[in-house]
Amino acid sequence: MSLPAAMERAEREVEALALGVRRSTVELQAGSRAAGAGVAWGGDLVITNAHVALRDRLTVVRPDGETRAGRVLSRDPGRDLALVLVPRLDLDPISFGKSERLRPGMMVFALGHPLGVVGALSTGVVHAVGASFLLPAYGPRQHRWLQLDMAVAPGNSGGPVLDTGGEVVGLTTMIVHGLTLAVPSEEALRWAARRVGSCPPSTS
Amino acid sequence: MSTSNSSLAALSEALAEAVDRAARSVVAVHARPRLPSTGVHWRDGLVVTTDATVRRTDGITLSLPGGRTVEATLAGRDPATDLAALRMAPGQLPVPEFMSAPARPGQLVLALGRLDDSGPRSSFGAVSSVGGSWRTWKGGELDSRLQSDLALYPGLGGGPLIDASARVLGINSGGLSRSLTTTIPCRTVDRVLDSLLAKGYVARGYLGAALQAVRFSESAGQRLGLSHRGGLVVLDVDPDGPAARGGLLLGDVVIAADDRPLEGSEDLLRRLGPESVGTKIHLDLVRGGARNSMDIMVGERPQRPS
User: Fold this and answer.
1) Tell me: the pLDDT tens digits for B197-228?
2) Which of A117, A158, B62, B107 is the most exposed place for a label (fewest CB within 10 A)?
3) How many contacts does A have with B, using Cβ atoms within 8 A?
4) d(CA A28, CA A69)
5) Distance separating alpha carbons of residues A72 and B186, to the nearest angstrom
């Protein structure tokens, strides 16, 4: 395949990947304030960051603009994860992949609502995997993070990070020294599964 | 949904492969407090990094790919081009493949780093601008201007810029420009390295005169028959320096060097590169309202203790 043809194909693949993940990514609002993004998991559950779900009651905006009322089921400020129950959310659950397969240089994508731009796609590469003494010592250093070379902004928090196959490999969480840090998908999934006692939960 | 025959996956895999391959020659340099920097095993037993990241000359260690730590010694440094050479035991690491063709704007590139034993680090971007030789604010001459839009995260300074085929384009420096990432091209690294290995430093031409740019008035220019209005007035002369030996005096205005007009001190500095040492430079000047000229034997700039 010639390079222009390969590039064109790659572009179409990114487009398809963005369309797919947008169907399963919600916007979370605390009162009238935008708080961040979340990933639909199971029929009526959303995984997001604890710092996005600071209030117990949240407004959840579906990709089509419809809103639902959400209630925080569980919150872990240390790992910065939260699980939100959203009755009648009715979104396709997103497919989780393996962040352990990521190597530095691999392409990644993030979907979120940076600075209020709803459903925006960011592209970047894996900066590093594993521990790093660059991370603040107070808490983040105790956990494993995906360290990504990718431009994100407030509003991306809690949104999905995808690999080239369109599967979730992490949850965008914070920016340190210009690097984007994401909770690895395995940890988010394991944590959420423990909260509901099964994996994945069936729609109620 | 992960399909290995997708173009995106293939591109991603190619980038990771390039990082993996080039990273075999990339080490972490522990030569300053707290934050390490990155170095490239440029020739067997020789690691290149940026001068600004080497803060101590004793007790330097390197973290090699695979996690081993070895000792290194400073082989030489050149603050003007922001390069330092470290010596380590030979036969430990491969040397990378180098890109001989000039970089092109738009070319996809990666910056590599290594900070500890947690594996290589990378950032991705494109070459933003490519140009001819230029002088850094530190006074060193770089053979070409190579700038890219990638993010040089803490500790990535001193690491290589590579293309998608893992070929090294140069050494990334965090201290040479404010906005874009500047890369010291391979040709400059090789040139500086040769000089550092031969002498331990890079020799630069020296006149021993402090000069300040001035402009002649229109009437003075006409009276003196000047082809241009600029010049460099002599503010101070090192009494033991080449300029004093050649007869340059305080208040002289140097208007041309080897028949090239001087508008700013840059024009003269360009003439005083490493190869100028020991050559004769012909200066045209205005002294006491009259034209004059002299030859000066270019000396070698004294080494400042580092």
Assistant:
1) 988 888 888 999 999 999 999 999 999 999 99
2) A117
3) 108
4) 10
5) 56
Six-digit token pair at A161?
């990070």
Q: Which of A10, A124, A147 sits opposite B11 (nearest CB)?
A: A10
Res. A60 pLDDT band, cuts 50 70 90: very high
Positive/negative CA dihedral, B117, B119, B123, B129: positive
Judged by a CB distance cut-off of 8 A, whether residue B11 touches chain A is yes
Residues of chain B in contact with residue A107, where contact means CB-CB under 8 angstroms, are 8, 11-12, 15
pLDDT tens for each residue of B11-44: 999 999 999 999 999 999 999 998 999 999 999 9
Of 1.20.140.10, 3.90.660.20, 2.40.10.10, 3.40.50.80, the CATH number of A99-188 is 2.40.10.10
d(CA A190, CA A159): 17
**Count of other CB atoms within 10 angstroms of residue A140:** 18
Residues in A touching B10 (Cβ below 8 Å): 6
A149 inside 8 A of chain B by CB: yes
- Please check whether residue B5 touches A, CB under 8 A: no
Q: What is the CATH number of domain A22-93?
A: 2.40.10.10
Of the two residues A36 and B271, the one the predictor is more confident about is A36
- The confidence score (pLDDT) of residue B45 equals 97
Structure tokens at B183: 């890369």
Q: Verify whether residue A157 is a known catalytic residue.
A: yes
Report residue B192's pLDDT band, with 50, 70 and 90 as the boundaries. Answer: very high
